[in-house]
Design brief:
0% strand; mainly alpha
Length: 376
């Protein structure tokens, strides 16, 4: 099982390279190119296909479907409870996650189609939000993939709050990744780094299936970056909304299915302290920061927070004198440096945990001062 993560990464990487090359050829031939977006959207328009989401999501969905077919046809009548390796021991866990995984893939497909629709014919912000809330609500409420399940101890009100927080978390991450998709390699690179960090955390606690899913996502994004960031003369293909929205959905839901703390298991590798629930927020701090900061700037300047412009973190760094590639690499580095704290925080005693949180906040505040957000 230890080889599951690197194998899934490699499979996703190879499939993504193939599918992205096909998507580039298709996009150029049929002119499915980047469009001006909704009315008032300010962007640098280039004649580049924006169907990268189809390639990335296809490279993710196909191996997962193949894996689900495999485990659904497998019989494991004699499970040795002393075995802590091999598929048999984890068969019950896989079975429990079967229906939520189908719901996850359905949500990915829904957002892929909705995003492609928006890429071809821009939707109103209210329509986009509605289309985002639908899969978020279905998977949280309908399939009980929730955050803060300890709130169930407070009865139906606590459970309702858990559902509400879970839905808001998913929708927020969908939009955070959508906001971040504004420069070559930015959203895909940050999502790849976050996926690798989440995969490491899931691997440490032997959540093999979740680790494999995150590794597969990281591999698909790594393959896509060969065409989206590596070319020195500019990206050959963009993610589009059909890519950024499903990626945000995957990161949010898979993070919800990762057990970051387990108070009932002394010695749990990721920790037993309640502040371990902050791990996803730390790992995804950069996209969350960009979404909040950009929205505040737009509101302060009298613009709608939902209409795209050149006020994102990456653009502000470029305005400060960095090249576009340099700005993207800086944001990648910050995502990795800040995100690593999320893996260890649940294992720390109170004072070091507070220091990790303060370190994250200080890094984001320093970034804000560096890129001039507080002077505007």
């Amino acid at each position: 099982m230890q080889l599951l993560s690197p194998t899934f990464f490699f499979v996703g990487w190879m499939l993504s390279i193939i599918f992205t090359a096909v998507a580039i050829a298709f996009g150029n031939r049929y002119k499915t190119l980047d469009s001006a977006g909704a009315e008032g959207h300010v962007k640098e328009l280039r004649p580049v296909p924006n169907v990268g989401g189809v390639a990335v999501m296809s490279a993710f969905i196909l191996p997962v479907v193949a894996g689900l077919i495999f485990v659904s046809t497998r019989n494991a009548p004699n499970i040795d409870p002393t075995k802590h390796y091999g598929l048999d021991f984890f068969q019950s866990r896989i079975d429990q996650g079967f229906r939520p995984t189908i719901a996850l893939l359905a949500g990915v497909a829904w957002l892929l189609l909705a995003g492609m629709w928006d890429d071809r014919k821009p939707l109103r912000a209210s329509t986009k939000l509605l289309l985002q809330f639908i899969p978020a609500t279905v998977i949280v409420w309908g399939f009980d993939v929730r955050l803060l399940t300890f709130l169930d101890h407070f009865g139906s009100e606590g459970q309702a709050l858990s559902v509400f927080i879970g839905v808001i978390w998913i929708v927020a991450m969908i939009n955070a990744m959508n906001f971040l998709d504004n420069m070559d390699g930015l959203a895909a690179g940050v999502a790849m780094i976050a996926s690798l960090l989440f995969a490491i955390g899931a691997f440490i606690v032997q959540q093999w299936f979740i680790a494999g899913m995150f590794s597969l996502l990281a591999g698909t994004l790594a393959g896509f970056l060969l065409f989206n960031f590596a070319p020195k003369n500019g990206a050959k293909i963009f993610l589009g909304d059909g890519g950024s929205q499903p990626i945000g959905f995957l990161l949010a839901v898979l993070a919800m299915r990762t057990t970051f703390i387990n108070p009932g298991e002394p010695g749990y590798a990721l920790g037993t302290n309640w502040w371990g629930i902050l791990a996803p927020l730390i790992i995804l701090a950069i996209p969350i920061y960009d979404m909040i900061a950009t929205s505040l700037i737009r509101i302060r300047q009298g613009s709608s927070p939902w209409v795209g412009d050149q006020r994102h973190l990456s653009h502000r760094l470029v305005q400060r004198g960095f090249s576009k590639r340099g700005a993207v690499l800086i944001i990648w580095a910050l995502a990795a440096i800040i995100g690593m704290g999320g893996i260890v925080i649940g294992n720390l005693t109170p004072l070091p945990a507070v220091l990790v949180v303060l370190q994250t906040i200080a890094a984001l505040l320093l970034l804000g001062f560096m890129e001039g957000i507080f002077s505007r």
